[in-house]
Structure formats: structure tokens, C-alpha cells
Write the C-alpha cells for this entry.
Amino acid sequence: MELVQIFSILFFILLFLKTGFELYLNWRNQEYVRAHGSSVPAPFEGKITPAEHKKAADYTVEKSKLSRFNLIFGLVSLIIWLPCGLLNSLDQYVTSNFDTEITRGLALFFIFSMINLIISLPVDYYSTFVLEEKFGFNKTDKKTFFTDLVKKVLLSIVIALPFLYVLLKIVLSLGQMWWFYAWSFLIGFQFLMIMIYPNFIAPLFNKFSTIEDGELKSKILALLEKTGFQSNGLFIMDASKRSSHGNAYFTGFGKTKRIVFFDNLIKSLEPNEVEAVLAHELGHFKHKHIFKMLTVSILGALIGFAILGYLYESNTFFTGHFIEQRSSYMALLLFSLVSPLYTFFLTPIFSILSRKHEYEADAFAAKYSQAKDLISALVNLYKENASTLTPDPLFSKIYHSHPPALERIKHLESL
């Protein structure tokens, strides 16, 4: 058996194994949640009503159904793009209509992205205006939905195409070590985006206002001083114009970093609870979780580019994945399409690491605020976001970046 055939067979085996395993885990989680949706777990009795618990279970079941559709849709799409030859046909089209390899690459990436955007639009529309609407979470109107879509396309043209131009120029111009220079450029570009995102990109989609003077701001400033955290500002984002889900996050890098609260979060939690949530987020910063995960991401990208640098020299990589013509742009696109099949086994490892970080951040929050306030905040967020309290243990271990509700509350109570 030739190496090309081995690659092709391995592609199909991994594609169906990955999708089949994900479908099984999805179904398993759905049935587990459904089976435990009738009674509130003991630690949450009196805090979450049976109706609220049932709503969370029903919401999870509906999301699971949509997720299964997306998994099957993704499998069929990848088969159409690669084994069925659609990507080859698109490559032949750009080869016939554009003169240079770089312009062909830019055209292919743009057309490929637009096709995927169009075919995924019905699912996104259904998720927003049917599923989220059904459970009372959607606050987006159709005008905002499609305006956001246009903005994303324009941002892709303004940001992604110049990025791809430079990347392809590096691949074609810098010899056998192109992969190292391409990796260096990618990392530099990512840091640049982290710095400019808060001031130039995020405001295109949401309005940000500073937190007004009062009890909440005083508590936050006291917490920041106590933990030695310096930020470029405290902001509230008008997330409620799109969804009723609440959250908070850090954004930016170095002097540009800022703390952003969803307005939903501010409205649904007491000042002590908001302080505890922020203390948890600060715990991630103080334990250098962001730096650690960024380091892992950078090293992972370096390994990925090194592998691609090796595969780029072999026609087998292309023909084994049903691509007839070897090119720089096709190497980048093909690698991005098939690499998830070969790295799926890493998913539970990153989930375990992430959950460990969550426990450490909770311990930090218990030290610098009150564990009971974080427990109260989490219960309210579980309720407001209709997050299931009873996920399937195996599904949770593989996919969830946060510990299950019961385990997390138990850990906080021990603190």
C-alpha cells in the first residue's frame, strides 16, 4: 500500500472516529441531563427552583441537538471540500483567473471563507432567533444580526487579507526555514491584535462605559489595590443588546489591559458578588494562568508550523488529502482543515489543565474576597444562564474548561 493511500485511509478513519465519538458523548450528556432534570441537586435546593433547573436541562438538551447537527454538518462539509473535490475545483478556478500564487491564495481563502459563512448562516440564524429566543436569552434584532455579519466580513478584508498576504510572502520568499519566520510573524500579529482589540475592534460591536462612582466601584478599586493589579480602566459593556447571558473578562495586554463587565452581570449580582467574580478573574492573572496558556499556545503553534514545514515539501501530504496541486496557500488551508483530526486526543488534556486553573482562581477569590459571595454569584449565574447543574461526568471531563457546578461549589465550601 502506498503512503498516499495510507494518508487517505487514515483521514477517513480519524474523521469518522472523531465525529462518532463526539456524537456519542453529546448524546450521552443529553440523556444524563434529561434524566436528572426533574430534581434539584441537594446543595442547590432553596437556591434554584425546580422550574429553573428544568429550564436549564431543557436548554442543554436543545443545544445538544443543535451541536449534533453541527457535527454531522461539519463531517459532510469536510468530505465535500476534500474527497469530493470541491476545494480542488476552487483551486483550479483561482489558478485560471489569477496570475500569481499570492493573489490566487488570497482569492481562494476569501472565496472559501465566504462559502463557509453563507452555508453556516442558517444555523447561526436558528441558534439566535429560534433556540436562544425560545429560552428568553436572545436580545438581538435582525438588523443588529446582519450588521454584525457585514462588519465581520469587512474586518476580514481589512485585517485578514493583509495578514495572509504577508504570510504567503514569507512562505514563498524565505527558503526552507520559512515556517519559523511565519510562526514569528503569527505570534507578533497576535500580540498586536491583543493590544489594538480593546480600543479599535471591540467598540465596533459594543458600547463601553466606565463604571460610575459608588459602592461597586469602591469595592473593585479596593480589591485591585489589595491584589496589586493595575488596569487601564474598568468598563461595562452593553452585552444585553444581544443576549441576556452574563460574563466578565480581561482584555488587552500590558498597559492596554482593561477589565470589562457585561451589563447583565452588574444587574443580576450584588456588589459583593461582583467583587468575588472579579477576584476569581484576578486569580487567573496572579497565578499566571493567562501567561501559561499563552506559552502553551505559542509552543503549539511552533510545533504546528515545524510539522507543516516538513509536510510542505512532500506531495504525499497534498495528494493523500485529495489535493492535486501543491501550493503555499493550499498547504496553509489544508493543514488548518485536517489538523483537528490528528490533535483531537489533546482536548481532555487542555480541559484538565483549565479546570485546575479554575480551582486555583477560586482559592484566590476566597482569600481576597468571600467564598460565600462567589458561591452566591455562581448560583445566580448558573440560574441566569440556564447552565446545567448535572452534566454527564465523562462529557464534562473531556470538554468542560470549568469544573461541574456541584464539584466547584463543594470545593469553595471547603475553603
